[in-house]
Amino acid sequence: MRTPVGPPLDFTRLSDDYGSKLRFTGAMAGIHAVDLVDAAFTADFTGFRLTCW
């Protein structure tokens, strides 16, 4: 089930390709987890998919 979290945003300025020079990498997305209690646990991610629609 997908739940919208807000309006579409323009992330053009976050891209390395923004501006007068053409560069290599674009904007990036990722996931991150932190054990805030005692940093004893880790998280392993085997997949991540970002779908823009």
Which helices and strands occur, and which strands form pairs?
Blueprint lengths: L53
Describe, in plain words, how this protein is organized in 3D:
The protein has 53 residues and is low in regular secondary structure. The protein has no helices and no strands. The protein is extended. 0% of the residues are buried.
Q: Keyphrases for this structure?
A:
0% strand; 53 residues
Outline:
By secondary structure, the chain is low in regular secondary structure.
Compute the gyration radius: what is it? Answer: 16 Å
Q: Low-confidence stretches at least 5 residues in length (pLDDT < 50)?
A: none
> What percentage of the residues does DSSP assign to strands (E)?
under 5%
| Gross morphology | extended
Main sheet makeup: none
Head-to-tail CA distance between termini: 15 Å
| Mean pLDDT across every amino acid position | 76
> Helical amount among residues, as a percent range?
under 10%
Number of strands: 0
SS field, number of helical segments: 0
Question: What structural class is derived from the secondary structure elements?
Answer: little secondary structure
